[in-house]
Amino acid sequence: MGRIPEDVIDEVLRRADIVQTISTYVTLKKAGANHKGLCPFHNEKTPSFNVHQAKGIYKCFGCGAGGNVIGFLMAIEGWNFPETVRYLAERHGVELPEESEEERAESDKKREGKKLYFRIMDLARTYYEDNLWSEVGRAAQLYLSERGIDEATSRKFALGYAPQGWQGLLDHLEKENIPGSWVTKAGLALERREQNGFYDRFRHRIMFPVQDIWGNTLAFGGRVFAADDDGPKYINSSETSYYTKGHQLYGLYTAKQAIQQEGWALLVEGNFDVIALHAQGIEVAVAPMGTALTAEQTKLLGRYCREVYIAFDGDSAGEDATERSMAATYEAELDVRVVRFDETDDPDSFVRREGKQALEAKIKAAPPIIGWALDRVLAPAEGNEVEKKLGALEDAGKILKDVKNQVTWEHYAQEVSRRLDIEPQLLREYIQRPKMAAQRVRQAIEDSQRPLELPPAEFGILTVILDSPKFLAHFLENSFDGLLSSSELASFLRALPDQIQEDGKISHASVLQYVENQAFKRTVEQALMAPEELYTAERTQRFYDDCVRAIKKQWAERTLKELNRELAQTNFMTEREKYQQLSEQKLMVERFRQSPDTR
């Protein structure tokens, strides 16, 4: 279009409420003279995006973005200046000046095409909705009622019914002077293959209008409900110039206000899940309409909240879909958690059976999506099979490679390392260069499968204390744990008093839960497999004393070896004081070794 006069632009800016417009994209809260929210142009956790209603401007103090309502729409929608001004002018009743013939013809064509598309969709929605609440829709009404969806909720989502027959919608729209070819282009009819003409895409189905954030009907989904219908469970109208499935979320127009108020959204698989949850008072539910969650959908959702709970079906397909959603949620930097269901459950059936409070409890207990995904691949590999662990490591690497936040990465890397017995640094090397680090990783996993070797006396102490915990207090009170060569054994024994039961025994089953090092865990398992009663009480005491005596002697020998090494490296002439201290320590240790307690 030609140059738009300044007075027309001023009128558009005067009539277009910037807070109302931006609130469609951003959750704004009153803060003095301004409204504040999270900036839609960069990722942030603390609101730095300000909108001044009286001045008609916005400003982000985080990334520097700012301007008026026209600039905002150009930035967030990717429109050019004339498109944005025309959109706001049409929305707020401002007349634009005449364009050149060529420009006017082109813009009129686009405008009329979009207007016609929305008219077809609105007429179709009314047709389907009227059918649902007429006699012809009685079976569909009954089905909705059986699914726990009342009339108020059905009307809230403008649910409808496409009746039996091949021409119902086409005949209805023809009365409105809309030919079948236009209906077909809008995705609501199909061209006959063997003869001229068209037929309705949707027949004998419950209809779900798909709306954009402004409330415009863009498309429809249709679901069978008759038990004997062997057609596809769901079908959708085709994508058009005005509708891309991966750019919309079912139910967002209805849910966006609740999502803004609550600060979080519940993402479910299907349209019925959304409606069933709204019927139960959970009004933050939306769905990606059967597609894999896209970056555009997470960006759209991120305009209204930063927390998202994914509640897909509990079967393997639902879990796979949840895992595929991870990349898109990483890109939007949303805080995403996973609501888990049993294999045969989904949000709709669960909330109808257990109620709203039970679902809210599941939501409250939902783990972060990264932790959930890692557990999914790590849990089956926790055991002795090296190949399973290597496979789990490969899958875990794929999950972690897209995690941008370093603190988050380190946290989950530690978890993977602990559960697969791999050092965090080796894990990092494997993720960065899997082929180069593969052999070292395999060796590390194989090594972790072997028990941690302890000197015989230390293994004996472990065995006798697990069998007779009464010796533990004496061992720790005399600081014998400080004489052990194994730091794993020393740490284990120091933590063991908390595991002694009222009867003075140790639960062998529960004590293993507190051992994180897998190699040492196998050593403990070996010690627990010793005979239930080693000896008589007298011989058990003698065995304990012998082990302690040997531990003292071995400590003295290790210490003397280290002192001799340090003395050999110390210059008597220049480090006389240090040399004298080491010599005195050596003398004391030698006396300790020669004492009766170590013989």
What do you see in this structure?
There is one protein chain. The chain is 53% helix and 10% strand. It is an alpha+beta fold. The strands form 4 sheets. A 5-stranded antiparallel β-sheet has the order 1-2-3-4-5. A 4-stranded antiparallel β-sheet has the order 6-9-10-11, covered by helices on one side. It has a 4-stranded parallel β-sheet with strand order 13-12-14-15. β12 (264-268), α11 (271-279) and β13 (285-286) form a beta-alpha-beta unit. The chain is elongated, with a radius of gyration of 35 Å. The relative contact order is 0.04.
The radius of gyration over CA amounts to 35 Å
How many DSSP E strands?
15
Strand content: 5-15%
Query: Would you tell me the overall average pLDDT?
Result: 87
| Structural category | alpha+beta
Strand count, sense and closure of the main sheet?
A: 5 strands, antiparallel
Task: Give the neighbour order of strands across the main sheet.
Answer: 1-2-3-4-5
Helical stretch tally:
28
Oligomer: single chain
Question: Span between N and C termini?
Answer: 103 Å
**Outline type:** elongated
Indicate the low-confidence ranges by residue numbers. Answer: none
